[in-house]
Amino acid sequence: MVRAAPRLALLALALACVAASPRAALGSSVGFGPEASRALDLEAWERLQELGEITDASDGSLERTFLSPASRRAMDVALAWMRDAGMRTWTDEAGNVHGRVDGAAADAAPPSSPPSSSSSARSAAVLVGSHLDTVRDAGKYDGALGVVLGIAAVKALVLEYGGAANLPRPIHVVGFSDEEGVRFGSTFLGSRALVGAVPDDVFDRVADAEGLSFLDALRLNGFEGTRAAVERATLDPADVAAYVEVHIEQGPVLQRAREPAAAVSAIAGQTRLAVRLRGDQGHAGTVPMRGRKDAVAAAAEMIHDLETRCTPPPPREGERGEAAEEEAAEVHARDATADDDDDESSSSSSSSSSLVDDSLVCTVGDVRVWPGASNVIAGGVNFTVDIRARTDAARESAVADAIQTFEATCATRGMRCDVERAHDAPATPCDADVAAALERAVRVTASEAAAGRGGASEAAIRSEQGGSSEGGDSRGGGGGESLVGQLVSGAGHDALAMAERFKIGMLFVRCLDGVSHSPLERAEPEDVAFAARALAHYLREVQEDAEGGAKEEKRREGREEL
Ligand SMILES: *[C@@H]1O[C@H](CO)[C@@H](O)[C@H](O)[C@H]1NC(C)=O
Ligand SMILES: [Zn+2]
Fold first, then answer.
1. What is the residue with the minimal CA distance to atom 8 of ligand 1?
2. Pick from 269, 315, 255: nearest CA to 509
3. 515 C-alpha vs ligand 2 centroid, how far in Å?
4. Which three-class secondary structure string do you get for 404-424?
5. Cis check: omega of the bond before 371, within 30 degrees of 0
6. Which ligand is closest in space to the CA of residue 416?
7. Which pTM value belongs to this model?
8. Are residues 234 and 404 in contact, defined by beta-carbon separation less than 8 angstroms?
9. Residue-wise pLDDT tens digits, 288-329
């Protein structure tokens, strides 16, 4: 009785939103049938749990490294699920597992083989995937989520279209053999193989703990294990319309915003610095404070300055309210910058900290002290700096400020210091169209959930209600409108490697307290179902666009029967 009224109001709200959406005419606002819903809501969750049990560790923790026995079992399981979804499957020479529905393009592609390189743009597949390997003592969701949801979304679409052959456009799911880089200390080996970018030293020099090389490991597992064979795994960009990856957020932003999922606008760029300080080693008891050259004290000052430079100011007086509101404000600030171009003038003036891009994060994660004794003034300190931001301008500005501050501190203290720029990677934008389509898919899914259709996600309903009744934010009341908009990925993913050749898009899923690379990693079943539905909506929109395109083509050729 009490429940009926808000339900109806939400339904009306959701329908109003759907009617306003340009997708409504194409029908992507419609939910999924019972079988497809089961694949998305329940089976995907069960499969994640099943995959989470496939481990090399005897102590019950989760560990699957490149081509380990557990990895081989996980590959077989993923291949079986792909076939169950109606895909033809194969394993490439870098150990990646593939499944593909060719749809209307089936005639063009030979069965049981990678896509031919002669396919036209219309038969280019949306590629969906993530990695099947894990770190040691891992969680069940990092990587596995993207593979399992890719398979679930394809299964749902095949069911909805009444068979794989009825899909207008191919969809290709991939489970990467290595992303975490645990075995060979080199990340993204699976995805780098697909873009032809496995590093030379992985072929020539790198060995695992047993002294086996990457190619040895492949050969021992029945692959050809030659550089030429691995290079055959490279995909032709003409065959790939876009690469889309669903991944746990590995951060707390969605949880703070009470959102189940959000599209990603960019993967942050990264700079790593190696800083080495040399002071004067001495006796902690006998050397007076004045005139010391204490490397630890100098490092502490530098690290503190860096943290200050990179931290956005607290909310102004008057904006201060409930903690949740502050957090929401933080998220909005992030969202508000999401459409700017890379060349924006950001935070070049460190005196005006309000200009600090709040995707900027600066971390000193490793500090080494020489000699490291309680009664000795340190003679040397080495520390690392990791600086990341959504825009290269914001990152470069922070790096320049950091180096300048470090050098000034060294000069003031009369110490020798050496700052090495150890690594630079530019920010990688997601394709704007793919990101916008994923954002639409999130909104449609939230509307559906709010309207209680097709296995509604309670989490989404909560988020919907939060959006329209809490925080007093005008943007939140739009009936399924995402509060978060688009997020920035602070971590690299397979999508980062894939971006070398393909358009990319990512969908982040809320994870508990932002914890990952840990057995405490957790995504809620409702959020997994929400993401599965959002991905399926996205893929359906792509299919409908292809359908529309095909009809358009026929019309132009005058073959359309009116
Ligand atoms: C700092 O790095 C230099 C150069 O790599 C090395 O020689 C030195 O031992 C390091 N110091 C510490 C405290 O790790
Ligand atoms: Zn991952």
1. 382
2. 255
3. 12
4. HHHHHHHHHHCCEEEEEEEEE
5. yes
6. 1
7. 0.79
8. no
9. 999 999 999 999 999 999 999 999 888 776 554 444 444 444
Q: Which atom in ligand 1 lies closest to the alpha carbon of residue 381?
A: 13
DSSP structural state of residue 167: -
Strand partners, 125: 240
Residue with CA at minimum distance from ligand 1 atom 9: 370
Ligand 2 is an ion; its neighbours by CB within 5 Å are 142-143
What is the distance between the alpha carbons of residues 543 and 537, in angstroms, rounded to a whole number?
Answer: 10
Residue of 31, 454, 107, 487 lying closest to 260 (CA atoms) = 487
CA of 212 to the centre of ligand 1 (A): 29
pLDDT digits (tens, 9 = 90+) for 245-267: 999 999 999 999 999 999 999 99
Give the residue whose CA is nearest to atom 14 of ligand 1.
368
Taking the CA atoms of residue 282, residue 284, residue 285 and residue 286 in that order, the dihedral angle to the nearest 10 degrees is 20
Q: Is 380 in the pocket of ligand 1 (CB under 6 A)?
A: yes
The pair of structure tokens assigned to 241 is 């319309």
Say if CB 188 and CB 179 are below 8 A apart. Answer: yes
Sign of CA dihedral 38, 41, 44, 49: negative
Place of tokens 């109003």: 16
CA 242 to each of CA 132, 504, 538: distance values in angstroms, whole numbers, following the listed order: 20, 6, 12
* pLDDT tens-digit series, residues 360-397: 999 999 999 999 999 999 999 999 999 999 999 999 99
**Calpha distance 343→346 (Å, rounded):** 8
> Measured between alpha carbons, how far is 178 from 47 in angstroms, rounded to an integer?
20
* Strand-pair category, 380-389 with 367-370: antiparallel
Token pair 């359309």: residue: 560
Residue 30: its pLDDT value, please?
Answer: 58
Higher pLDDT, 338 or 203: 203
| Closest by Cα among 71, 69, 68, 90 to 79 | 90
Name the one residue in this structure whose structure tokens are 């499969």: 47
The pairs formed by 334-339 with CB atoms below 8 angstroms and a separation of 24 or more are 334/253, 334/358, 334/359, 334/487, 334/488, 335/483, 335/484, 335/485, 335/486, 337/390, 338/265, 338/390, 338/485, 338/486, 338/488
In the numeric block, the tokens 């080199």 are attached to 186
- Going by alpha carbons, the residue nearest to atom 4 of ligand 1 is 276
For residue 369, give the ligand 1 atom closest to its CA.
Answer: 13
Residue found by looking up tokens 């969202």 in the block: 335
pLDDT at res. 485: 80
DSSP secondary structure code for residue 77 in this structure: H
Kindly give the distance from the C-alpha atom of residue 396 to the centroid of ligand 1, in angstroms, as a whole number: 26
Task: In whole angstroms, give the CA distance from residue 88 to residue 501.
Answer: 24
Residue 325, judged by CB atoms within 10 A of its CB (0-12, 13-18, 19+), counts as: middle
Torsion angle of C-alpha atoms 187, 189, 194, 198, degrees rounded to 10: 90
pLDDT for position 546: 75
Task: Identify the DSSP state of 62.
Answer: B
